[in-house]
C-alpha cells in the first residue's frame, strides 16, 4: 500500500539529502544504545580496545551473573510494586473525580477543577523537602506508600483532565435514561462509564506507569533501605559499587532498560495517544 | 451557576418523585467521589508547596519544630551563592539549546516522517525511544559514552592519536556534554507532537496552495508552518518548563559537578537542601524555582496561548 504510493512519486532531488539526514540522526540515536547492549557482552579489556564493534567473544556470563544474582529481580519487584500501587490509586481516584466533574453539576465545580489543574504547573522539586517531612511525620518513610501516594497526587491533574474530557463524550442522554430507570450514579459509573472508557484508562494508566517506573527524585528522598529501592536507585548504587567495571554496568543497564523497551513496544499506542491528548490541553 | 437537575432537563414527563432521589444520588457521588483526589492533591502537592514557603523563613535542619525564624535571610544566602547563579545560567543554556537546536531538529524530522514511506514508522519509533528510557538509564549510558578510558568518545580520540579527554570531569566541557544528552533524549518527544499535529492537518489547504502555483517550500513556509503554530507554541512551553525542572539526567552524569559547573536549579536544591537537610535553605531554592516556573507559565499562557 504505502510502497505503491511512494512508487508514484517522481524522482525528487531532495530525497538523497533526506535519506542522508535521517541516517545521521538514526546513527546518533542508535550508537549509544547498541554500544550499551553489546558492551555488556564484552570483557573489560575488549571494551577498551573495541567499544564499537561486535564482541570477539560473547561474554554471556556478564548477563548471567546479574540474572542469577537476585539483586536484579528485587529491584524489578520493588519497581513493579510501587508502579502498580501508583497506577491503581491514580486510576481509582482520578476516574471518580473526573466522573464527578464531567456529569454532576454542583456549585464550585469549575473552581475545584481549576484548583486541581493548577497542579500541572507546580514543579515537584519545590514540594520535595516538605513532602519528606510530611511523609516522615505520617510514618510512611521507607515504605512503598511513602513513594506511591505523592506520585499519585502529582499525576492527578493530568489524569483527571484526560479522563474528564473522555467521560464528557459519553452521551448525557445515556446517563439520563439510566437515572430515570432507577440506576444510581455510582452504578452508572461502575457499569457504563468505566467499561466504555477502557482506551483512555489504558492511556492514563500507561503514562502513569512509565512515569512512576522511571522516577528517581521521590524514591531517592523517601527510601533509605536498599531492599526497597526501585531500579533507578538500585542501578545508581550498582554503578557506584562497580565504578569502572563498565562491562558489568552496561549489562546491568541493558537488563534494566529491557522491561521499559518491552513495555513501550506493547503499549506504544497508548503512550503516543496520551502524549498527544495531553498536549492539546497542556 | 445552573443548578438544574438532570431529571428536570429530561422533560416534563419525568415523575416529580424522581427529582428527590436524583439529587440524593448526586450528593452521594459528591461526598464519595471527589474527596480522595482532592485530599491527596491538597495533602501531597498544595500543602507542601505552602509549607516550602513557610520553612524558607527558618534556619532549620528538619528535626523538631522549626523555631529559628530568620525572615528572608535564606533567600539572601541563596542569591549570594555563586553556584546558584551558575545553576540558573545552566537552566538558561538548556532552554536555549532546546529552542535553538532541539525544536528545529524535531520539526524537520516530523516534516520528513509524517509522510508515508517504507521505514517511516520504524524511524519514528526509533527516534522516540530515548524519550521512553528513564533519565537515570540515559545518564548512565552517556557516562559510558563519555568515559575517558572505555567510552566511545575516548576511542574516537585515540584513533586520531590524541590523549582522550575526560569530558564530564572538566568544568569547561561537563555542561556541554550534558546538553548533548538532553538533545538526544528529548527531540523525539517534540517530533511526535509535531507528527501528531501534521497528521491532523487539513491537507486540502496545502493542495489548494500547490494548485495556485506555490512551490513546495512556499507551501511549507506559508501554509504548513503557520498551521503548526499552536503546536509549536505548546512545544516551546513544554521545552521550557521541562528545562527548568531538569534533574534526573544530571545526577548519573555529573551530580552537578565538577565544581558546580553543571548544576541545574533542582540538582543545586538537592545537593544543598536535601543531602544536607538544610530545610530552610533548600525550601528557599524551591520557592524561587516555583516563582520562576509559575510566572513563566502564566505569562506565556497570557501572551502566546490566548486562543487555546
UniProtKB/TrEMBL annotation, chain A:
ABC transmembrane type-1 domain location: 76-267
Q: Which domain of life is it from?
A: Bacteria
* UniProt name for this protein: ABC transporter permease
Q: Gene3D superfamilies from the entry?
A: MetI-like
UniProt GO cellular component terms:
plasma membrane
Membrane-spanning regions, if any?
20-41, 80-101, 113-133, 145-163, 200-223, 246-267
Q: How does it sit in the membrane?
A: Multi-pass membrane protein
Q: Which UniProt keywords apply?
A: Cell membrane, Membrane, Transmembrane, Transmembrane helix, Transport
Q: Where in the cell is it found?
A: Cell membrane
Q: What is its main location?
A: membrane
UniProt-listed GO biological process terms = transmembrane transport
- Entry similarity comment: Belongs to the binding-protein-dependent transport system permease family.
Amino acid at each position: 500500500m504505502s510502497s505503491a504510493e511512494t512508487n508514484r512519486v517522481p524522482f525528487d532531488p531532495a530525497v538523497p539529502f533526506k535519506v542522508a539526514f535521517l541516517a545521521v540522526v538514526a546513527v546518533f540515536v542508535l550508537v549509544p544504545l547498541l554500544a550499551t547492549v553489546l558492551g555488556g557482552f564484552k570483557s573489560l579489556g575488549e571494551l577498551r580496545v573495541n567499544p564499537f564493534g561486535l564482541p570477539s567473544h560473547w561474554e554471556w556470563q556478564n548477563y548471567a551473573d546479574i540474572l542469577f544474582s537476585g539483586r536484579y529481580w528485587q529491584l524489578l519487584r520493588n519497581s513493579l510494586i510501587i508502579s502498580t500501587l501508583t497506577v491503581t490509586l491514580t486510576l481509582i481516584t482520578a476516574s471518580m473525580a473526573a466522573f464527578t466533574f464531567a456529569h454532576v453539576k454542583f456549585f464550585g465545580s469549575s473552581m475545584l477543577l481549576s484548583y486541581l489543574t493548577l497542579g500541572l504547573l507546580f514543579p515537584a522539586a519545590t514540594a520535595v523537602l516538605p513532602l519528606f517531612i510530611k511523609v516522615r511525620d505520617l510514618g510512611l518513610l521507607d515504605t512503598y506508600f511513602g513513594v506511591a501516594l505523592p506520585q499519585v497526587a502529582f499525576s492527578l491533574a493530568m489524569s483527571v483532565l484526560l479522563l474528564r474530557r473522555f467521560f464528557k463524550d459519553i452521551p448525557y442522554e445515556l446517563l439520563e435514561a439510566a437515572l430515570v430507570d432507577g440506576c444510581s450514579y455510582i452504578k452508572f459509573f461502575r457499569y457504563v462509564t468505566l467499561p466504555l472508557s477502557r482506551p483512555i484508562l489504558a492511556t492514563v494508566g500507561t503514562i502513569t506507569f512509565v512515569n512512576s517506573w522511571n522516577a528517581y527524585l521521590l524514591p531517592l528522598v523517601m527510601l533509605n533501605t536498599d531492599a526497597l529501592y526501585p531500579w533507578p536507585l538500585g542501578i545508581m548504587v550498582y554503578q557506584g559499587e562497580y565504578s569502572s567495571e563498565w562491562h558489568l554496568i552496561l549489562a546491568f543497564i541493558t537488563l534494566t532498560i529491557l522491561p521499559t523497551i518491552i513495555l513501550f513496544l506493547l503499549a506504544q499506542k497508548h503512550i503516543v495517544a496520551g502524549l498527544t491528548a495531553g498536549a492539546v490541553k497542556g | 451557576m445552573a443548578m438544574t437537575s438532570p431529571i428536570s432537563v429530561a422533560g416534563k414527563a419525568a415523575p416529580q418523585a424522581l427529582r428527590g432521589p436524583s439529587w440524593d444520588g448526586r450528593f452521594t457521588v459528591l461526598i464519595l467521589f471527589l474527596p480522595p483526589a482532592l485530599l491527596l492533591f491538597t495533602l501531597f502537592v498544595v500543602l507542601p508547596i505552602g509549607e516550602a514557603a513557610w520553612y524558607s523563613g527558618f534556619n532549620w535542619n528538619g528535626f523538631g519544630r522549626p523555631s529559628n525564624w530568620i525572615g528572608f535571610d535564606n533567600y539572601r544566602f541563596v542569591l549570594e551563592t555563586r553556584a546558584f547563579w551558575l545553576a540558573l545560567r545552566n537552566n538558561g543554556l538548556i532552554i536555549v539549546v532546546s529552542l535553538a537546536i532541539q525544536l528545529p531538529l524535531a520539526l524537520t524530522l516530523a516534516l520528513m516522517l509524517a509522510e508515508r514511506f517504507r521505514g517511516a514508522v520504524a524511524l519514528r519509533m526509533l527516534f522516540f525511544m530515548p524519550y521512553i528510557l528513564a533519565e537515570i538509564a540515559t545518564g548512565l549510558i552517556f557516562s559510558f559514552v563519555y568515559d575517558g578510558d572505555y567510552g566511545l568518545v575516548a576511542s574516537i580520540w585515540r584513533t586520531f592519536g590524541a590523549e582522550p579527554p575526560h569530558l564530564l570531569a572538566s568544568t569547561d566541557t561537563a555542561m556541554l556534554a550534558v546538553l548533548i544528552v538532553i538533545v538526544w533524549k528529548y527531540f523525539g518527544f517534540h517530533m511526535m507532537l509535531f507528527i501528531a499535529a501534521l497528521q491532523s492537518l487539513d491537507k486540502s489547504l496545502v493542495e489548494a496552495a500547490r494548485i495556485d502555483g506555490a512551490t513546495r517550500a512556499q507551501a511549507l513556509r506559508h501554509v504548513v508552518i503557520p498551521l503548526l503554530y499552536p503546536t509549536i507554541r505548546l512545544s516551546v512551553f513544554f521545552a521550557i518548563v521541562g528545562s527548568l525542572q531538569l534533574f534526573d539526567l544530571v545526577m548519573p552524569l555529573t551530580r552537578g559537578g565538577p565544581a558546580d559547573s553543571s548544576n541545574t536549579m533542582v540538582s543545586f536544591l538537592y545537593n544543598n537542601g536535601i543531602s544536607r537537610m538544610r530545610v530552610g535553605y533548600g525550601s528557599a531554592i524551591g520557592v524561587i524555582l516555583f516563582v520562576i516556573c509559575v510566572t513563566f507559565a502564566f505569562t506565556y499562557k497570557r501572551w502566546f496561548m490566548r486562543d487555546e
